[in-house]
Write a structure and sequence with these properties.
The protein is mainly α and 360 residues long. 75% of the residues lie in helices and 0% in strands.
Amino acid sequence: MSKHNTAYEGDANDVAVNKEYVLSLKVNKSSDDNTEAGIENMMIDEKEESGDKLQVLWNKYLGDCASVTLILKKKPLNLSWWGLAHFINIFLRSVGQTVFVNNPVLSFLILVAIAFSRVESGLGCAVGGVLATLTELCLRLHPWSLVESGVAPFNGALVGCVLPSLYPLLHGTGHAAGLWLAVCLGSVATIFCAAGCNNILDKFNLPFMTLPFNIISICTFLTLLPSQDEGLDSSSEALTSPSPISWAGVVEGILLSMGQVYAVNNMLGSCLMMLAVGLYSPRLLCLAMIGATMGCLVPLIFLPPTLHHQIYQGLWGYNPLLSMAAASCVFTQWSWPSLLAGTVNTLSLSTVLIQQALAS
């Protein structure tokens, strides 16, 4: 009996030893796996940290220019030098907000590009932006978040930029007094119009974007239509003989689309604007130019050859440019579904086909 018990105990000890050995192997293997996984996680964390640091550094100066925002956030908005700094910051940001650039330095580059392309447009943009900013700071019709980012007064700057470019098409080179009166009154009116649009659309969490600009511009041009004696300057579109597609012209139109957002038809000015947008956000620039490319290629399907010059001037690219950027990465978080939504928005829902419907 004792021998049997001794043998049984020996077998049990061997089994226990084997179990401990197997467990030790599993523990060692799991610790090795944990070590490898830990190293991989550390490498991923380091990459994320380096990416976050780069993103923070980028936004500090080139993105939303958080450094300026942090400095001015602690300073009073009153009749002092800091109040002037607030005013300049808001005004400059309003210039760039048309192409979704929320950076005072890069917006200044856009203003320089506008003035270089057409002095009257640059002056009008400055006058309209200043008056709209002053009106907003005096009346406080918008939330401060929309004011400090330049969203509240940006329609005024856009009115001041576009009217000097389009006004000569109606009245030639004369009537300068009427032009600048329209710029001043229109830019101030955009603040009231934007406040009304924001009160309505904000209930549905929708941005008012350039709706105030469109309303004020339409009212302005309806008011300032020339008399029948003056007539409109009808170009010789109907007399233009059909010609094959100029692919160089299409590429030029894609590049000019950025400038046409501000009614600027100048290659260097448009390239400077693209530089500003690219420094603000490379992704924003890429998606915007994808939209401009779609806007310049799709109309080749249905536009008659006599109207292809509109594509070459970027007139069919600037609306798709804004639509693609807005739907894919500005008002939605960037993702592949948002890119699809931007593509559908660009091609059908709000730009190319609607522009064709309005033109026909």
